Amino acid sequence: MLQVLFNSLVYASMIAVIAVGVALCYSILRFANFAHIQFAVVGGYLTYSFAAIPGLPLPAAVALSAVATGLIAILVDFLVFSRLRDITPEGKMIVSWGVALFLRSVVAIIYGGGARVFDLSYEVVAIGDAVFTTLDALVVVVAAALMLLLHLFLNFTRVGSGLRALASNADLAVTRGIPGDRLIKLMWFLSGALAAIGGTLLAFETRLQPNMDLIILLPVFAAVTIGGLSNVFGAVLGALILSVAQNLLIYIDFGALLGGDSWQIPTQFRDYVAVLALVLVLLLRPRLSPLAGR
Amino acid sequence: MLDFAIYCLTIVAVWSVLGLSLNIQFGLTGLVNFGQILPFGLGAYAAALAARAGMPWPAGAALGLGFAVVVSLLVLLPARRLSQDYWALITLGAGELFRLTALNAPSLGGADGLTVPRFADPHLALACALALLAAAWFMALRIARSPFGRMLKVLREDEVLAATLGRNPVTYQRTVSIIGWAMAAAAGVLYAHIVGYVSPSSFTVTETFIVWTALILGGPGNTLGVVVGAAAVQLLSVSSRFIAGWIDLPADVLANGRLALFGLVLVLMFLFRPQGLIPETREVRDAERH
Predict the structure, then answer these.
(1) What average pLDDT score do residues A61-71 get?
(2) pLDDT at position B290
(3) What's the confidence (pLDDT) of residue A283?
(4) Quick check: A220 and A19 in contact, CB under 8 A?
(5) B256 CB-near residues (< 8 Å, 6+ apart)
(6) I need a surface site. Which of A67, A232, B67, B245 has the fewest CB within 10 A?
(7) Which residues of chain B have pLDDT under 70?
């Protein structure tokens, strides 16, 4: 059981760091940005490239990648989304897929289709019969620290309050003298940088490959939906709920429960939980109003 | 060369049907379906399963259409009366689930997929594809010009207005989805018999967005535009093998370059010509001046 908790925490950490960016963007610009997933992929690959620079320590490579991906997010907004502020949310969603398709293909052209692995050394720690690695611990600590910093930034700084004001009522916030355009740029930078770190953590735990976007697409959007699309910390909670549900489902021995031979759900089927959670939330959403954010 | 032209035309016809099926959902009704590859895949896999069971092709076609209708009702159950953000997420999730199921279920062939008997005669394949396209085109025009179609456009522009006119948006959305999904499933059945095999890699999210690119390029809401868009996108796809011959590029770079171009086209169309190459003709009637 402890193992389920460890696995859930590690997985939720990676998903949450990526998912908060989707929620940030939705809360201010009111559209589901599917290109966000590609920011995570771009960030993972950029970390790989920066880490290859001799003499550059890995944390510096991650930081550089986060800054670079944040700037890429601002650039994408400048070139595309800032010119389309007035179209329907559906239109923006479709455009974001165009951006995603472009980014994903460019990454695949530059880095090729093969998988790349970070060469990290870590130790295995055992508590009872549950095991985790020092890398797992690092992932959870980094994610928790980032979420705490984001919380402090959004709730206890002037700029953070500005962002929240923009999210709750953009027109009013701008009328009251909040620099909307500059804060939107900041929002893009934040979500791009967070996505890059999330993508890097995911690459540390698994490996880099161009189709890693398909692996995180459903979990990330399910987490954001569980949290109510525009609720930043709802997305974190969503990631935790989803992750625990997924790992529990794989852990439970359904065969033994039903009195037969041991049979567990194959791990490939854990994305079903993501979609199932999505469907359940949508069916029950009116009754989930405390989570729904809006 | 003639054989290749016949093949190109066949593929264009099949993808045009898929484009039309998306158009009656998005172009006419404003439903954002990010999983349009799902009914297409259902049709293709139904054809393959029927063939494996030794059934004739009409059984496969019937099975495919049946699957598509049932699954469309299931998928739209949670999506009804929700905003288009959620509609997009649900359809996207359903499409991915189908791909994952096909990839992980050994009875569906797994990653290797299943083989399907191909058309013995490419001319017959072309004739079937063109017949299906003609049927889909006729149906799309009939829908667009009927009172039902006009109400769909009202629904697209303003759901509340449609409701105040005494029409139930959910009923309309359901009917449109069933028609659209059945159309895509028919295209899928035909596609499986043309290509000769089905595998999960043919039904990814990316394929859905190739259809979207065709739709946005041609002109959402315009039947002719969608076919032109599908033709442009698919001709570019099949001609890339010639381009590979002229310029010395590895196949995967070329394939990804093509996808990058599609993404770029989608974005550029939204930025500079959101109405598409062939815009929808909008009827403007002034209520004041009669």
Answers:
(1) 97
(2) 47
(3) 73
(4) yes
(5) A105, A106, A108, A109
(6) B245
(7) 79-82, 283-290
Report which of residues A168 and A78 the model is more confident about. A78
Chain A residues with CB-CB distance to B85 below 8 A: 31-32, 89, 93, 229
User: Are A95 and B257 within 8 A, CB to CB?
Assistant: no
Mean pLDDT across the stretch A36-54?
95
Question: pLDDT per residue over A90-113, tens digit each?
Answer: 899 999 999 999 999 999 999 988
Distance CA A86, CA A88 (A): 7
Q: Which one-letter DSSP state was computed for residue B35?
A: T
Angle, alpha carbons B134-B139-B140 (nearest 5°): 100
- Amino acid at the residue B139: M
Residue of chain A whose alpha carbon sits nearest to that of B251: A109
CA distance, residue B272 to nearest chain A CA (Å): 10
Residue A286's pLDDT band (cuts 50, 70, 90): low
Closest to B90 (Cβ–Cβ): which among A80, A97, A282?
A282
Distance from C-alpha of A66 to C-alpha of A108, rounded to nearest angstrom: 20
Q: Identify all chain A residues contacting B103, using CB atoms and an 8 Å cutoff.
A: 268
Convert the pLDDT of each residue in A190-211 to its tens digit: 999 999 999 999 999 999 988 8
Average pLDDT over residues A41-70: 95
Q: Pairing mode, if any, of strands B197-198 and B114-115?
A: antiparallel
Residue B26 CB partners (closer than 8 Å, separation 6+): B32, B33, B215, B220
ipTM: 0.91
pTM for this predicted structure:
0.91
Residue B155 is predicted with a pLDDT of 85
Query: How close is the nearest chain A Cα to the Cα of B209, in Å?
Result: 7
Find the residue in A nearest to B30 (Cα): A90
Residue B128 Cα, gap to closest chain A Cα (Å): 32
The answer, for A31 touching chain B at a CB cutoff of 8 Å, is: yes
**Residue burial B130-159, b: 16+ Cβ < 10 Å; e: rest:** eebbeebbebbeebbeeeebebbbbbbeeb
pLDDT band, very low/low/confident/very high, at A289 (cuts 50, 70, 90): very low
User: What residues of B are in contact with residue A100 (Cβ under 8 Å)?
Assistant: 263
CA distances from A271 to A16, A230, B95, B158 (A): 16, 22, 12, 35
Q: Which alpha helices (DSSP H) does chain A contain, by range?
A: 2-29, 36-51, 58-79, 89-111, 134-156, 158-168, 170-175, 180-205, 212-226, 232-251, 254-257, 270-284, 289-292
CA distance B256 to chain A (A): 5
The answer to whether A97 contacts B266, with C-beta atoms less than 8 Å apart, is: yes
Give the DSSP H/E element, type plus range, for residue B198.
strand B197-198
